[in-house]
Amino acid sequence: MVAIDRRTVLKTAGGAGLAALLAACSGGKGASSGDQGSGKGEIRALFMKQAAYTEADVTKMTAAFTAANPEIKVTPEFVAYEALHDKIVAAGPAGTYDVVLIDVIWPAEFGSKKMITDVTGQWAPEWKTEMLAGAIETAQYDQKLYGVPWIMDSKYLFLNEAHLSLAHANPQWLDTWDGVLKTARRLKEAGVVKYPLIWSWQQAEALVCDYAQLLGAMGGKFLDESGKAAFNAGGGVQALEFMRQTIVDGLTNPASTQSLEADVQRVFQAGQASLVLNWTYMYGAANDAKQSKVAGKVQVAQTPKGSVGRPGVNGGMALCVTAGSKNQAAAFKYISHLTSQPEQEKYALSSLPVWTTSYDEPAVVQTNPKVVPQAKKQLDDLILRPQAKNYNAISQVLQAELQNALLGRKPAQQALDDAADKANSLLQS
Amino acid sequence: MRPERVRGEGRFALFLLLPAAIVVFGVVLYPVVRTLLMSFYDVDSAMPGSYPFAGLGNYAKAFQDPSFYPVLGHTAYFTIVSTVAELVLGMGVALLLNAPLRFKWLWRSLVVLPWALPTIVNGALWRWIDNGQYGVLNQLLGTEIQWLGSPFLALNMVIVADVWKNTSIVAFFLLAGLQTIPAEIREAAVMDGASTWRTFWSVVVPLLKPSIAVVLVLRTIEAFKVFDIVYVMTGGGPASGTQTVAFYTYLQAFSNQLFGYGSALAYLIVIAVGALAMFYLRLLRQNQMAGV
């Protein structure tokens, strides 16, 4: 047997430790300094799995791109929305991806930290006038454009017509949030469902999306003109009080505080809820008899009106070229293809285009005749969540305090005051 | 002086160790040292660059952070309750599996199943079971409880899921210990008139102390680092009631890109876990020296 003495082991371990220290001190430069590249070769792109364009859609779009550009090979990857941000962050230093899909709440963070490239100069001049204003916001921060809008979405009101009919409730009542409450009470009293409403109020970004829509309808603001938190006054407080009251009155399913959009969809499709807010994709899913018990009974409407208006939450997403990409020219070419009007119109059934004139195209309207007219009205009036560099941290404190109020642990005003205090110190940091 | 042949064999042995050493260097040593260095800098981006030196500022920040203390409380509660529950239940299961049963192989296979499940799958499973709307737990009990709907109850349900999974491994550790206890010792206790409880408490438990200590060290450390089951079952909610130190560290580092602060929090976990391990091992050594 070969004996390795203690001194050898200690020397080897010490050497490894020293090497680790030296390597760690060197800073791990990675591949963060990107390059335009030759416009040819291989690129990797990161997309999300659920909602909007499906994996099959992206695969077909990519195949069309590579057929027209055989010198570029594209490898798309898909992760759940919940993992998308962290995957972009973790892969950033190594420059693993050339193209990444980002949510409307991230351009400030990724742009200010130089994780995605400024492509303002590469935008065709007409894009700014031909795209929906809300779509442009998904890629914009500090007067610069960090990507090209690709997904345009907001939350709509979905209703079960059969339930309304059973309760003799008039669908026109759903034009306002007060009318939604009236309808929900009618549905409950008639015993159609135990809880007419279910929402995505889990401690997650989904909760802020629902809150944003109600805050906007009731005249609230996330931030004031000086950039300080303003959601703890006026419409912001009324919105949270409204949300809490629907739980107290037994109109909202108490499972809402543990539900994401997919849970809302599941309960609605099982016929256990009558009125819900959700993204566009739910219309197709809820009317698909293979997965829904309420297929054929589902209608979609604009988000209801509050005391001030009916803005929908801006749920857009944009495609960006990463700062670490060694093939930025090819990456932008690929993005330009995916976001082009003809390509988006082909897949309008999955996700509505970012182009204004698409909403009057008969071919687009035909893909989803019930949704497109509603979207045309809704996407003209959107509310944007704060464009802050540390939005995620602000959102986390807001989510926690919103839940404190929803669970009855704090009055709405106190919860929002506490959230505003924390948000203001984060906004100043 | 060693002969040339032996030195040659020594070099060859080191050469064979090289692949393992490279892996250890790459996935353990380098990240450990780099994280430590990062914890002394105000790193607020994943991208490489020069960041201001913060000294112990990130460590001090943790103790000034009002969100850190509730998170620490949840972690302590989770660690204590889950470890104790796993130990008590694991002991019961181990005693049953050690009893003269028919189809012993079948029971042992069944018991190990929960532990064989990946934690992510276990978390998803319990998220469904506990669902207030269509979960099987409410169906079984005929109740309408929102098991994950209030902070304290949700924390306890996460503990239930963790206990369900990890009781198996505790039981197998203890079963291994039980099988080293000669049957004659227990028979002698019974012959001397000791009751079943007395035999268990005064004969079996003292002889099992080394196994119990190993299980305690492993489970306490694992429980203190809990992350994945929380991520899947509750996402840290409701109202941040199930956020643990590891989950909070992840939020700060990856969601908020506060890598300096996140690294300091990670090292605070390392220090706490190290202190716990030292405490248990010292206890174990004292017991061994006392001949227990």
Question: Can you describe what's shown?
Answer:
- The complex is a heterodimer of chains A (429) and B (292).
- By secondary structure, chain A is of the alpha/beta class.
- Chain A has helices at residues 6-25, 55-68, 81-91, 107-112, 127-130, 133-137, 161-166, 177-189, 205-217, 235-248, 261-269, 281-286, 328-339, 341-346, 362-367, 371-378, 391-406, 412-428; strands at residues 41-48, 72-79, 99-103, 140-141, 144-145, 148-151, 156-160, 275-278, 298-301, 312-313, 317-321, 382-383.
- Chain A folds into 2 domains: 41-153 and 315-380, D-Maltodextrin-Binding Protein, domain 2, CATH 3.40.190; 156-313 and 390-428, D-Maltodextrin-Binding Protein, domain 2.
- In chain A, the strands form 4 sheets. Chain A has a 5-stranded mixed sheet. Chain A has a 3-stranded antiparallel sheet with strand order 8-7-9.
- The longest helix of chain A has 20 residues, at 6-25.
- The longest helix of chain B has 35 residues, at 4-38.
- The model of chain B has no long low-confidence stretch (mean pLDDT 90).
- Chain B has 12 helices and no strands.
- Chain B is an all-alpha fold and 292 residues long.
- Helix content of chain B is 75%, strand content 0%.
- Chains A and B meet through α1, α3, α11 and α17 of A and α1 and α11 of B.
Topology diagram in text:
The complex is a heterodimer of chains A (429) and B (292).
Chain A: H1 6-25, E1 41-48, H2 55-68, E2 72-79, H3 81-91, E3 99-103, H4 107-112, H5 127-130, H6 133-137, E4 140-141, E5 144-145, E6 148-151, E7 156-160, H7 161-166, H8 177-189, H9 205-217, H10 235-248, H11 261-269, E8 275-278, H12 281-286, E9 298-301, E10 312-313, E11 317-321, H13 328-339, H14 341-346, H15 362-367, H16 371-378, E12 382-383, H17 391-406, H18 412-428
Parallel strand pairs in A: 1-2, 1-3, 10-12
Antiparallel strand pairs in A: 3-11, 4-5, 6-11, 7-8, 7-9
Helix pairs in contact in A: 9-10, 17-18
Chain B: H1 4-38, H2 57-64, H3 68-98, H4 104-116, H5 119-129, H6 136-141, H7 151-178, H8 183-191, H9 196-224, H10 228-233, H11 245-255, H12 259-289
